[in-house]
């Protein structure tokens, strides 16, 4: 883990409240694993909590990519970051996804949950793993960065509440269809998920219910990001765990919802 001063290479509006940040961060990138996160010191934020956690969307050739949604004071202040400016980033932090998979890798995401799944998909594809992404949102505008997944050769199934893309319903609908046919054909798979809590609970239940391995990235409010404050507690079968140290990725079978 390092605290790196990173120059901003690109900062773009991706629509629907999402922004994309590209930073020169050679030290962090050299150590980064999919599912880990960084803690970014937000310029201009004058409170005791100056940093915000973000998943590593991609880490390649010394460049760190983040995809974030503007939701409150910290991310609003981040939206003013200019190209050429330097920001302080601590990372990589936490415990990520295993970058190996028995059988097919089923990646399930919603909202900014697709961010760590892209980095994971890229490395799994490099290792010759077959990858399918299931992504859900309220409308097609909430389905982010699908072209980048497509360019990796990832198969994609979408679900939206209004039916504007893919199945009308929840992301678990196309997942359930596939799980039924995988069961029939004895296809081996592992599930990797990141997104809103109800989705994660539903996916974790499916992983444990089918006796498959599942890896779930939990999103908890964080303060220190390094294990000291206990703000980010997740219940597990082993008791309380800190998402910033033991997580954010946990085995589905370890989680207590
Ligand atoms: C491990 C981890 C990885 C994350 N990765 C990403 C990412 O890749 N992209 C991204 O956009 N966001 C990500 N988040 C969430 C992000 O950290 C928060 O959205 C951000 O800290 C909000 O800061 P704020 O000051 O703008 O909002 P605040 O003013 O603190 O809060 C505004 C609103 O956002 C909600 N909020 C605050 N923290 C979170 C949170 N952790 N998750 C969901 N809602 C929250 C609050 O409940 C409130 O409704 C991640 C969080 C964690 C713990
Ligand atoms: S954020 Fe402080 S212990 Fe996890």
Largest sheet: 7 strands, antiparallel
* Number of continuous helical runs: 6
Helix content: 10-25%
What is CATH's topology name of the largest domain? Rossmann fold
Defining traits:
alpha/beta; Elongation Factor Tu (Ef-tu), domain 3; seven-stranded antiparallel beta sheet; seven-stranded mixed beta sheet; 23% helix; globular; binds flavin-adenine dinucleotide; binds FE2/S2 (inorganic) cluster
Architecture overview:
With 257 residues, this protein is α/β, with parallel strands linked by helices. The protein folds into two domains: 2-93, Elongation Factor Tu (Ef-tu), domain 3 (Beta Barrel), CATH 2.40.30; 104-254, Nucleotide-binding domain of ferredoxin-NADP reductase (FNR) module (Rossmann fold), CATH 3.40.50. Helix content is 23%, strand content 36%. The strands form three sheets. A seven-stranded antiparallel β-sheet has the order 4-3-7-1-2-6-5. It has a seven-stranded mixed β-sheet with strand order 11-10-9-8-12-13-16, with helices on both faces. The protein has a two-stranded antiparallel ribbon with strand order 14-15. The radius of gyration is 18 Å and the shape is globular. FE2/S2 (inorganic) cluster binds at residues 222-225, 227-232, 242, 244.
Helix and strand topology:
Layout: E1 2-15, E2 18-24, H1 26-31, E3 37-41, E4 51-55, E5 58-60, E6 63-69, H2 73-78, E7 86-93, E8 104-110, H3 114-126, E9 131-137, H4 146-151, E10 155-160, E11 167-168, H5 172-185, E12 189-194, H6 197-209, E13 213-217, E14 233-236, E15 239-242, E16 249-251
Parallel strand pairs: 8-9, 8-12, 9-10, 10-11, 12-13
Antiparallel strand pairs: 1-2, 1-7, 2-6, 3-4, 3-7, 5-6, 13-16, 14-15
The protein binds flavin-adenine dinucleotide and FE2/S2 (inorganic) cluster.
